[in-house]
Design goal:
alpha+beta; Tetrahydropterin Synthase, Chain A; five-stranded mixed β-sheet; 4 helices; binds nickel (II) ion
């Protein structure tokens, strides 16, 4: 059994602001990340799959198919977007990298079988680096 990871990147802006909390509490909680006009990140995401090497091809997955899935579900909808305003999932959910990781994982998981219809490979985990020092990881089995 192998784990294979492929790396992608996109740029997006966001503002950390919880609607259910007041202005002062938002400022206290999120600091400069709560600035009204937002700020940007060059996100690096790593998508990991697991599975055996296919007997015929000697490969775990077709990276071209994975690229197509990630492009359609993540890069096209998120790149050069404002996450709060332009991604429906973040109208009411704060676009922290924790929540972004869940949203990316959910999108890939939901559409995985259309690109990889067989038993293998399976989506294993998503890792997202918001900055060089802030890295978030979630396993596909942990979300619905
Ligand atoms: Ni930020």
């Amino acid at each position: 059994m192998y784990h294979i990871t492929r790396r992608y990147g996109f740029a997006a802006s966001h503002r950390l602001h919880a609607r259910q909390l007041g202005a002062e509490e938002n400022r206290r909680l999120y600091g400069k990340c709560n600035n009204p006009y937002g700020h940007g990140h060059n996100y690096v995401i790593e998508v990991s799959a697991r599975g055996p090497a296919d007997e015929r091809t000697g490969r775990v997955l077709d990276t071209g198919r994975l690229d197509q899935l990630v492009r359609n579900q993540v890069l096209t909808p998120f790149d050069h977007r404002n996450l709060n305003a332009e991604v429906g999932a973040f109208h009411d959910v704060v676009p922290t990298s924790e929540n972004l990781a869940i949203e990316i994982c959910r999108r890939l998981k939901t559409n995985w079988s259309t690109v990889f219809p067989g038993e293998w490979p399976k989506l294993h985990k998503i890792r997202i680096a918001e900055t060089e020092r802030n890295i978030f990881e979630i396993e596909a089995d942990e979300i619905q």
